[in-house]
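Page 47, continued from p. 46.
Same chain as before, 116 aa.
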Amino acid sequence: FYAAYHADLAGLEAELAKRAERVIRRELQDRPKFFLPDGAEVELVRPVHNSRFCAKCRRLRLTADGRLKLCLMRPDTLDLLGPLRAGASDEELKAIFKRAVELREPFYKADTIGQS
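Result:
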């Protein structure tokens, strides 16, 4: 499955760098953004096996079933819908978000890349 649907972005990134009029590194997740002569803007996102992507991630995601997902790559979540339906106060909801932020940690860490 992986081999059928995966493409290494190194060649594409090199080609974009040659063609681009300007290249910047976006602060968010330390990713390149290429500005091409025809006005197109291209960003390459490499979240897998990328400790720099994880280290700069500041996002929580809300799942369709009302849970806060702390990391795209991790299964752990916190229930938000239950407390909302139960009439949680603003302070109780803030506490859930604070707890979510406290529990977050990068999935890919520089010292674990390449380890099984």
